[in-house]
């Protein structure tokens, strides 16, 4: 059988540095940090009292109040991003076969705030157990894809991928494969997360995973810096419209880029720590490059997982150096988590969007907050520190790695007919 080509025809984003793709990308290139003191709840007693929150968002400007109250924030974020992406894709009423249009979304946790609120309410008023009738459908992680499917009438495949911080990338991989195999023409994919809650911050604090740089939140996410002390929790998400090429051309769609390769692997090592030699990361990049029919030297840019953790950052760099060899020093590499924080299950979506925009505008977003070189990270690597860099970007690779040893990579290419 002949495989279909898959292109990107629409995008939407809701992030800590912008509530649409245009603002997100402008601030990403400008090196704007989204970190600030937490406003969602009183974080005074926590070791970490800051995060990368979505800002200036009035849900009711996007979703009617009665609908919004039936959704956890992570699902609300999915709707807002998907609405922008669908509008951007410019579908007409007669350009979609709804039976071959699907939704494959990613989220690592799902309705954490809903679960937390209901449990607290029960603990405080437990004499008479009373739960919100929407508790379960708001909490379950697959609610986001179900809501989107209902919203647009898409009757094709509809599910959520859950692989911790690799979730959104795995969603993109599944969407790509379904379209490539001819099982869908169009898919809304991406991911979202809303874990800036008491339980989210408290849980990651207990793991000693979060930065505790409370005196300077905006400089706390510092991937590859010698003095990094953990990641900064983020929230939001992004939606990406994947479409079969001939279907897109037939309706005259604009095409941002082509998705050409995917890779997956497992560290098979530890539930939270990466493999010390970056073995799983090497394998996933190799799998993606080979799946795309490329050679390592074809990659121009890598948007790394780069969370700003003491252990994780050097392992990914080690993997890049081992797999790419001398070409590792000719590519641009950057971690946009230095600006957005870590969106957990939604990270792969906004980072895929960053790769697509890097190809579109031929510019590499920076890794901000670099102050001190880490002696364990080779200074010959171009980690795009502190300022965006113009360069030819034909092919970009995005890495995401999740607790449990889940690794996923996707590759985008400048579209050529």
From TrEMBL:
Residues 3-414 form the Ketosynthase family 3 (KS3) domain. One of its GO terms (cellular component) is cytosol. CDD domains: KAS_I_II. It catalyses: (9Z)-hexadecenoyl-[ACP] + malonyl-[ACP] + H(+) = 3-oxo-(11Z)-octadecenoyl-[ACP] + holo-[ACP] + CO2; a fatty acyl-[ACP] + malonyl-[ACP] + H(+) = a 3-oxoacyl-[ACP] + holo-[ACP] + CO2. The keyword Methyltransferase does not apply. The keyword Lipid metabolism applies. It holds the Pfam family ketoacyl-synt. Its EC number is 2.3.1.179. GO terms for molecular function: 3-oxoacyl-[acyl-carrier-protein] synthase activity. The active site is at 165 (for beta-ketoacyl synthase activity). GO terms for biological process: fatty acid biosynthetic process. Keywords: Acyltransferase, Fatty acid biosynthesis, Fatty acid metabolism, Lipid biosynthesis, Lipid metabolism, Transferase. It comes from the Bacteria. Pathway: Lipid metabolism; fatty acid biosynthesis. Involved in the type II fatty acid elongation cycle. Catalyzes the elongation of a wide range of acyl-ACP by the addition of two carbons from malonyl-ACP to an acyl acceptor. Can efficiently catalyze the conversion of palmitoleoyl-ACP (cis-hexadec-9-enoyl-ACP) to cis-vaccenoyl-ACP (cis-octadec-11-enoyl-ACP), an essential step in the thermal regulation of fatty acid composition. Belongs to the thiolase-like superfamily. Beta-ketoacyl-ACP synthases family. This is 3-oxoacyl-[acyl-carrier-protein] synthase 2. It comes from Dyadobacter sediminis.
